[in-house]
Amino acid sequence: MTFVQWNCRGIKNKKIWLKVPPFSISEFWVFQETFLQHQDHRLCSSKNYFYIDRQGRPGGGLLTAIPKNASGRIIPTGFSHNFNQEILAVEVHFKDFHFIIINLYAPQGLNIENVKYFFDSFSIPVFIFGDFNLHHPFWGSNRSSPLSNDFVEWLQNSSFILLNSSNPTYAAYTGSASLLDLSICSASISHAVDCYVSESNFESDHYPVIITWSILDHTPNKIKSIEWNRIMSNSATVLNTNTRLNALTSKISEEVFTTSYIPEEWKHSIIVPIPKPNKDKTKINSYRPIALTSVFSKVFERILIQRITHHLLTEKKIPPSVNGFLPLRDNQLAVYKIHTAISEAHSHKKYFIGISLDIKSAYDTVYIDGLIFKCLQLGITGNITKILHNFLQNRTLQVRWRNSLSGTKPVQKGLPQGSVVSPILFVCFLADFSETLDVGVEYSIFADDIFIFCAHTSLDHISKKLQNTMENVYKWCNYWKLNISPEKCSIADLSKKKLPSIPRITYAGFPLPWKQTIKYLGINFSKINQNGIILKNIRSKALRKINALKSIAYKNYGPRTKGLINIGNNSICSLFYYSCSITNKFSETQYKACNTIQTMALGVALGLPKWTPNIVLMKIAGQEVLSEKIKRLAAQFFIRQLANSVHSPIYDQNCNPSIKLIKRDEVILANLFTELDTSTDHIIAFPDTLISRSNFCEIFLSDFSFQNKAHPAFLIKDLFEEVVYKEFQDYHIIATDASKSHSFTSIAGISNLQSFVYRIHPINSIFTAEALAICQALDELSVTDKNLLLLTDSYSVLQALKCLTIKSPKVIHRLAGKILVRKNFHQKISLVWTPGHSLIHWNEKADLLAKTVTESHPLLEWIAYEDIISRYQTISLQKTNLSFQHSKYQESIGDIPAMFTLTPWLKNRREDIIIARLLTRMIITPALLHRFGLHNNPRCQICNRDNNIEHIILFCSKYSNHRSILYAKLNFDPQLCSSLKAFFQNAVSDKRHLRILLQSLKSFDIY
User: Fold this and answer.
1) For the segment 965-975, what is each residue's pLDDT rounded down to a tens digit?
2) Which of 74, 496, 592, 781 is deepest in the core (most CB within 10 A)?
3) pTM
C-alpha cells in the first residue's frame, strides 16, 4: 500500500505529472497547497476525493485521494480552520483495513497544543502527513523554535513515530534545503512502514514523500515466546554429533598451508542486495551488497588473521596513527588524537587546519599486486603471502535476487566484501600513507577515513605544508591505483584564531571545499562551541532511536522490559559512550541534557508515563546515571591505555608518547589514583613482548583422576599423591593460594624450602590475587636445577592461561611472561589444578598461610586494570541507590527492586508494565491525573478520599470483599499492611505472592 505526500504549490498546472510514478502507482494521494476551487477537484477518474479549500484569500487547500474501491468519510475535527492551520482527517476502509489519514498544512508552523488531543483520540492506526513548517535537530535541522520544541516533546511522549530521515523535502530558490514535510504514523504499525523522498520535485519547491505500508497477511494475534534453552540444547547435540569435525578442519587447514592452493568455492561470493533505509527501492544504488562466502573459508581466514595481527603488533609494523581492525586500536583513540591536537593548538594560540579525505570505492579498488608487495615489506612472507595472493586472485560472484541467481561474474581487483581478512589487509595497504606527509603535518586513519591536520603560528606555513602533502597524496594514490574524490573531501579551520584569509588547498587541481565543521568517525569538529555541536548531533540521533524504540515497545506483547532496557543502553546511550573521551568534558547543563535522553529511553522501555520522577525511574531500571557512566568510561579508556603500556597507540614505534593527554584528563586521572591510594606505576600492564601462544608450559585441568571434585576428600588426597609419585617425582613442588576478607586481600606460596605471604591492594579480585600468587612464586620459590610443579586451586586462572589471547586479562599476560623467563633456564614447568579443601597438604598449608596475613606483612602494590574498572562500576551503581535513599521518594514509596530481578517471575510485557507502574505509584488513577492537571476531581465518589492507588488497594470500601480474599491468599495480616509501602514489600518478595497479586488486580479495576 503506497501513499504520496506532496506540497504541490498548485496542482492545476501539474496534472500531467499525476500520470507518471510515483503518483500513478500510489493508491493514496495527500496533497497540500492545491490552490483549487470546488469545481477543480476531478483530477483522476480512479480516485475518490476529499478536500478543504481556503476561503476568502488565494492559496492553501488540502486534498486527500483514495482508490475507488475504498470507502472513506471526513472526520469532524472540532476546531475552526484558519489561514495558519488547515487540517483534513479522513477515515478509510480499504481491503479489510481500517485507518485514518490526517492531512495538514501550517504555513506559520504547527502549534501542537491546538491539535494534540485530536491526534491522540484515535484507537485505530493513524497517518499524519503534511507541511508542518517546523525546524528541529530531531529531523536534521540546525535550529529550532518554541513551536518545534513543543511538537518534539509531544511526539516523544505520544504513541506516534516520525518516519522521515534527515533528507530535505523543500528547496528554496536560494539553494538552501530543509525538511518541512513530515510523515508520522501510529507506533503499532511503524515496523511495517517505510518512507523516502523523491529525487524530482515535479515543478514544485517541495519534493514528494513516498510512504509504503507493507501489510503481512495472517499475522498472529499472539507471539509465542521462543524456547531458547531447547533450541541451544538441540544445536549442541547436532554440533557434537561428528567428533571428527576438529580433525577434519585441521587437516584442511594444514593442506592449504602446505600447498597454498585455495579451493574455488572459497573464492566465490553470493551477493544479496539489502535495501538502505529511506531510499527509493527502484534505484540500484539504494541497496547495500551483502556478500555471503564459504564458512570454511572464514574459519581459515581467522587462523590467518591471528598470525598476521600478532606479527604486526609484536614487531610494531603499523604506525600508531593507523587505527581499526587491529587489537588495541579502537576508534576512540583515533578521535581522541584529533581532539588533543586541537586542544594543544588552542592552548598555544596556533592556527589549526584539518582535511578529511574520501577514498572512492576504497575496498573495491585495492591494487592486489601492490597489496602483496606491501605485505612483503611489512614482513608477512612465506606461504601466508602465497595464500593471500591466491585467495585474492580470480574471484567470482553471483547476485541473488529473491529466489534467483545471476550468472557468474569474475572479479579482477579489490578486496572481497564479506571476507574476514579484508579489513586487516586494507590496514596493511594504508600502512605507508605517512610517507605522503610533509614535515609538521600529522594524520589519523581509521579504515578508509583519513584525517590530515597541521597546526602552526603561521597560516602561510600551514598552507604550504598542506598543499605539499596533498600533492604527495595525489602521487601516492596514482602509484597505488586509488582514487580520491575532491568534491567529497572537506577542509575546515578548527582554531580559535580568526583567519586573515582563506587558503586555497587543491587536490589534482581541484580546490577542496571549505566547511564550518568537519566530520571524522561520526564526530563533528567545529571552530566554536565544540561540545555543543557534538551534543546536538548525538542528541538528534538519540531522539530518532527513541522514536524507533517506541515502535517495538508495545503495551501488551512483544519485547520484554529487560530486552528493551538493553536495547536502549546498546543503541541509544551507547551514542554517548562512543566518544566518552571527549564528552567527559561536557558542562553540567550538557550532562543534564544527556541524562534527559536516558530517562526518555527508560520511560519507553519500562512503559512508565513521562511524569515519573527521574530518580525513581533510574532506581527501578537499576541503571547508572548516564553522565556518571560517561565519566567512568572515559576513566576506563585512559586507564586501559596505561595498562596496554608500550603496545598502546599513544606510544609511537620508538615507545615515545605520540598522544599527550590534555590537562583536564591528566587531573581526572590523577584524582582517580589518589582515591585508590596508589599510582599509575602499579597498574599491571602488558609485558614488553606480547605472547599469543599457549603451549609454553603444561597445564593440567582435568587430566588426572584426583581432579574430580565428586570424589571424597580422602580419595582425592590419595590419588594426588599417587600422581605426584608417578608423573612428577623429580619436580620441585610449589603451592600457591589467595585469600580475600573484609580486612585484607592476601597471597601466599610455599615449597619445601621456603614460603612467602603478602598483602595486596584490596581492590584486586580473588582471580587477580590467585594469578599474582603464582607470579610471585615463580620469582621467589623457584630453583634452577629442577623442573617446576605449581599447584593452585584456581581453575579459572589456569583456564585463562590455557586460552591465552591478546584480550586476556593483563595479569594472565604477566604470568605468561614469568613462565617464559623460567623456560629460558630450560626448565620444564607444569601447572596443575587441585580441588580446594581436599586434604592435599600442599594446598592446605598455602591456604592457611594466606589467611594468617596481618598489617605487619609487606604490601605488594600491584593492581589490575580490570579490577579498577569493576570497582568504579560498582560505585557508579551505588550512587543511583544512594540518590534514591536520600530522596523524598524513599519515605513514600519504599525500597524499589530493580525490574531485572522481577522479570523472571512475570510472563509478558503487559505484566512488566503493570508491576513497574504499581511499584512507582504510576498506575493511572483520578488522583494522579488531577495532580498533573488532567482530571477535575481527585476524590473517590464512595469514600470521599483521594482516589490514588493506595486508597484503591488498601482502603476503598468498593473493593473490601476482593481485598479480604487477596489478604487470605497472601496470608497477610491487614494490620501489618497499613501502608502501600509495607504491602508491596511483602507482595513482591517471592514469585508466589507476585503471581497472586497480578491475578487479583482485575478485581480492583487495574488492567
Assistant:
1) 999 998 888 87
2) 781
3) 0.83
